[in-house]
Amino acid sequence: MDYPSDVRVKELDAVFAEMSAATYRALWDELPELTAREKILLSLVADVCEQTLGVPFEEHVTAALEHGVPVGDLRELVRFIAYDSGYPAARSALERLAGIERARGLDGAREEGHEVNADGTGTPLPAPMVRAVRGLDEPFAEYMALQSRMRGGMTRIGVRERAFATMTVDVLYQTLDESFRAHVTRALGAGATPEELRAVVRFSALFGLTRAWRALRVLDALLTETGSVYA
User: Fold this and answer.
1) In angstroms, rounded to a whole number, what is the distance separating the alpha carbons of residues 184 and 136?
2) CA–CA gap between residue 10 and residue 154 (Å, rounded)
């Protein structure tokens, strides 16, 4: 495949371009456990979290469109991770995405979204998690319930993709305790294999090797604990 930044990076620095191309080969061509769509979505998750909204973001959006990913899916991805990345970071990404859409004659805002259940009650979060958070801080638990409830109707980004996206956020932010455990559990529940979970973390090394290294250690311990390590 044509790797992001091939031409532009060569113009900036030929040696760095060679390093970049080898890196992308290792984490795209040699990572068959993840689909091209999944790799692109996870790259966009990293862009939002790291606020790399210039050339990398544009190239990842371009790759998404070239692989047939609708802009509505990209918008839902940004909405989905907004509670983890923070709403200001997500808004910056949406503004950048809207600019790319306009330049290409697209209008993702017109694509069908989902119903936001902001005024409802309850939460799709697991009961033990809800109880644990309520024990820490009741208002924060209500806020968490709101955030999870507002995402309950999303359908463009599948459960597996959502789990992989939140795992990537955890790796980037090094939130490798309760949230990482919950997201790994969700991915396993969606049918992901241990090797696919390792591939998600391995892919995140593109955005920071040492963070991925630590996350792999935590993931291995979780898989061993759940008996999934050899599944």
Assistant:
1) 23
2) 40
Cα 228 to Cα 191: distance, rounded to the nearest angstrom: 12
Is 37 in contact with 73 (CB distance < 8 Å)? Answer: no
Give yes or no for a contact between 82 and 154, defined as CB atoms under 8 angstroms apart: no
Rounded Cα gap, residues 95 and 175, in angstroms:
27
Q: How far is CA 178 from CA 47, 98, 183, 206, in A?
A: 23, 34, 9, 24
pLDDT tens track of the chain, all 231 residues?
Answer: 455 556 778 888 999 989 988 999 999 888 999 999 999 999 999 999 999 999 999 999 999 999 999 999 999 999 999 999 999 999 999 999 999 999 999 988 888 888 999 998 889 988 999 999 999 999 999 999 999 999 999 999 999 999 999 999 999 999 999 999 999 999 999 999 999 999 999 999 999 999 999 999 999 999 999 877 544
Q: At what angle do helices 159-173 and 194-203 cross, to 10 degrees?
A: 50
Q: Considering Cα of 140, then 162, then 186, then 199, what sign does the dihedral take? A: negative
For residues 93 and 78, give the distance between their C-alpha atoms in angstroms, rounded to a whole number: 7
**Neighbour tally for 152: CB within 10 Å:** 15
Cα 218 to the center of its chain, rounded Å: 18
**pTM, whole model, 2 decimals?**
0.93
Q: For residue 3, give the DSSP letter.
A: P
The dihedrals phi and psi of 154, each to the nearest 5 degrees, come to -70, 135
| CA dist list (Å): 165 to 42, 118, 162, 197 | 6, 22, 5, 11
